[in-house]
Amino acid sequence: MRVMATGVLVLAFAGAAGCGGGGSTPSSPTPAGPVTINIVGERGAQSFSPNPALVAGQTVVFKNTDSVVHRVRLNDLSIDTGDIAPGATSRAVVMPASGTNYHCFLHPTMIGSVGSANSGPPPCTGVYC
Fold this sequence. Notes:
Blueprint (H helix, E strand, L loop, with lengths): L1 H16 L17 E5 L8 E2 L9 E6 L7 E3 L18 E2 L5 E5 L6 E4 L15
Parallel strand pairs: 1-3
Antiparallel strand pairs: 1-2, 3-5, 4-6, 6-7
């Protein structure tokens, strides 16, 4: 009986501790998962969806919805997803806050861009545009 009474006392104390008054801090919002950019095939500027993606500064993954392997690289070569098999998704990468342009390393005519809602994507210059 003594063990049961002690258990009830512990539970009552734990319950009271969880009901704290005005000193509690609000919980942090749960971060959203990465944004998905789909790889749809060799279609020039229509190879990625959405394109342009308004996700500058955000974490993204590339999902290969095509039937062949693709490999996404930023034009400045700062990010390379490695090969992405059909049906697979790349590792999560953080897009530059200033926006960027990218392409498929294996199919250089496949081009995409990342911008923000305020500024859109940067102009595409260089060999992949």
